[in-house]
Design brief:
The chain is mainly α and 155 residues long. The protein is built from six helices and two strands, in the order αααβαβαα.
Length: 155
């Protein structure tokens, strides 16, 4: 972590060198933090979405810079949550592939185009609390804030 070197620089030359290194590594470091937070949020969204046929969890998608209007069928069609785990692993794998393609300066968009995802988020299923999506987004923001603070503190 190059920011640690800035704090410990004891000469102007050392400070200049540490600042140059920080400027060089900052885009990569921030991109990694963004990818980690996106993985956290996507994993929670997929695994905490109420499940019957696995279609809702299969539709958590990640786009680079923009989303899509695509609605996917369940990765593995089930009944009463019977295919939750295999569909979740597949959805998460697809999301992680997109997240890994993100470069500094690109936006990541996490979305679900199913019309009934809002009903699920509103509490239509007893499998999840109302506003579970909002809570996950709030938690992800807190994870991002903590990661950025740690990074800026040289940790």
């Amino acid at each position: 972590m190059s920011l640690r070197k800035i704090k410990s620089a004891s000469t102007l030359g050392g400070l200049a060198s540490a600042l140059s290194e920080a400027a060089r590594t900052l885009p990569t470091d921030l991109n990694k933090i963004t990818q980690d937070v996106a993985k956290y949020a996507t994993q929670r969204l997929i695994y905490e979405t109420p499940v019957d046929t696995s279609q809702a969890l299969s539709n958590w998608q990640v786009g680079l810079s923009v989303g899509s209007t695509l609605q996917l069928p369940a990765y593995f069609i089930g009944d009463s949550g019977s295919t939750q785990n295999i569909s979740a692993v597949t959805a998460l794998g697809a999301a992680y592939q997109q997240i890994a393609r993100k470069k500094y300066g690109m936006n990541l968009v996490i979305y679900n185009n199913l019309k009934y995802i809002n009903k699920l988020n509103a509490g239509a299923s007893q499998q999840a609390d109302a506003n579970y999506v909002n809570k996950i987004v709030e938690d992800a923001e807190n994870v991002a804030d903590a990661a950025l603070r740690a990074y800026l503190n040289g940790n």
